[in-house]
Amino acid sequence: MQHWPFSFEKTRASSSSCSCLSRRVSAKPRPEPRRMAASRAPTSTAAAAADGGIEENAMAILDSSGIKDSRDLHDDRAAFLEAVRSACLAGDNPSAPSWRMYDGVFQVLRNSSSLELAVASFHLLMELGKQYPRTYLTDSGGHQSLVVVKESWLPFLIGNGSVSSEIGGNSRSSDHLFDPLAIENMMLFQYLVNTLEADFVPRRIAYKESLDWVIFRESLLNMLLGSRKLVFKSFVQNCIHLLLSQYHPEAKDAVEDSIPFEGEARSASDLDSSLNYSSLESERTLVSLRKLFVMVMELDLIRKEADALGLTSRADGFRNPIMEVILDDLTYNISYLSPFLLAFVEWKWKLEIILQYFSKYCGKGAVRTRRSDNSQQDLKLERVLSFFLTATSTKAIVKKMGTEVAQLLLAHAYQVCISVQGDSGDSTTTEKIGASLQEISCNFISAFQNLKKVSPNTQISPFEKEALFTAAALTRKLMNDER
C-alpha cells in the first residue's frame, strides 16, 4: 500500500486564510508580459462587470445540478476548462482567474474519474501558475525584491480558516487527499509540490541577498510543515514509503524536461489504460518527491543558519530536521536503505545522508548548542574511509552497523564522488568529500579489502562490484597520468 504524505481532509484555503500568508508585499506592479493575479487594483465598472460575467459563465458550465448522464458531466467539465483557458491564457487581453475559477479547475483534477479531464486540468493549473505566480522577484533599486500576492488561490488549507463547499458535484468522499491507485493522484501530488517549489525558489534567491529569515518563515513550505494539520514525522515517513513505491531502476531524471503541455495533453485520452503512461507518471512523481525532500532539507539548513545568527524566536516553533527523521527511519528499517539510496540521486544531500548515518557509529563531534556553529566538526568522507584503513578499526565499526550496511553506504558515497568529479559548481559536495578522487579511490578499495578480511562470508552486490571495478580502473588511470 502506498502512503501519500498529504492527508488533509480538504486542501483548499479560503481567501481569508490566504491573506495572512505574507506581510511583506511589494506594491510595485508586475512587468509585462505576465499579469498579476487578484491584485485588487481599482478597475473600471465595465471591466469588472466583464470579468464577473466571464466568471459566472464559466462557473455556470461547471454546475452539475440536475445532470444525470456522466457523459454530459464530462462534456461540461471539459467546456469549463476550455472556458477558463480562453479567458485567462488565450486572446489579446487575458485576465487572471478568480479564486472560484482556480478552485473549480482544482476540483476537476481532484474529483474527475476521467484521465482526459485530469490531464487537461493538471496542465491548465500548471500554466496558470506560470502566468500568474503567487511569489516572484522584481528588480528594485539594483537588487531583487520579493513580491507575494497575498490573496492568491492556494491548494492548501493553512491555518484555521473555513473551507468552501465542493464545486461541481460528484465529489469523492475520502479521509485522505489521494487515492493511491489513481494516475490522477500522481498528477495532483506533482501539482502540489510544484506549488511549493514556485513559492520556495524566489524566496531562496531573495534570502541570499538579504539573509532575512522572515522570507522563509512566511514561505508556504515552512507554514505547511508547521501546521497543526500535519504530523511532521508521519509526513516524512509517508514520503519515504511513496519514494520507495514509485522507484523504478529505469527511471530517468530527464523526465523533468519531458512533461507534455497543451498539444500533448489532448492526446492523453488515447493512453487511458496504458501502462506506459502510468509508468511515466510514476517517474514524474518520483522527481517531485525528490524535489520535496530537497526543499525541506534546504529549508532546514537555512533555519539552522538563522538559529546561529539569532534570527529565530520561540514563535518559529520547533521540529526535528528532516535529515534526522530520515536517518531514524532508515536505521530502524534496514531494508529501506538500499532502495532509498538508489532512488535518491541528489548528490549533495545523498552524501550528507550517508555521512550522518556513519556519524551515528563513528564517534561524535563537538556538542552543538542552538547558537553555536561547529560546522567544521562535520564528518567528511575522507575521515569515514580512514576508519576502514585497518582490520582492527574496521571490525569495530562492523560490530556496530554490520558489514552489509557499511559496504552499501561506502559504494553509494563513492558513486557521489564519481558523479560530481569535475563539477566546479558543486563546491559544497567537494568539500564534504575532503580529498582528491585518487585518494578516495585508493582508500575505498582498501576499505573493501578490510571488510572482506573481517567478514569473509559477506556477499558483495553487483552495485558494489561495479563501484570497486570503477575505483580500480580510475586509480590505475590517475596514477599513470601522474607519471
From TrEMBL:
Residue ranges annotated as transmembrane are none
Spans of biased composition, class Low complexity? Answer: 36-49
Biological process terms from the Gene Ontology for this record are: DNA damage response; negative regulation of DNA-templated transcription; negative regulation of systemic acquired resistance
Do you know which InterPro entries this protein is assigned to?
A: SNI1
Instruction: Map out region (Disordered) in residue numbers.
Output: 22-49
Q: Which domain of life is it from?
A: Eukaryota
Q: Which GO terms describe its molecular function?
A: transcription cis-regulatory region binding
Q: Which GO terms describe its cellular component?
A: nucleus; Smc5-Smc6 complex
PANTHER family under this entry? NEGATIVE REGULATOR OF SYSTEMIC ACQUIRED RESISTANCE SNI1
The name this protein carries in UniProt is Negative regulator of systemic acquired resistance SNI1
What is the species of this protein?
Setaria viridis
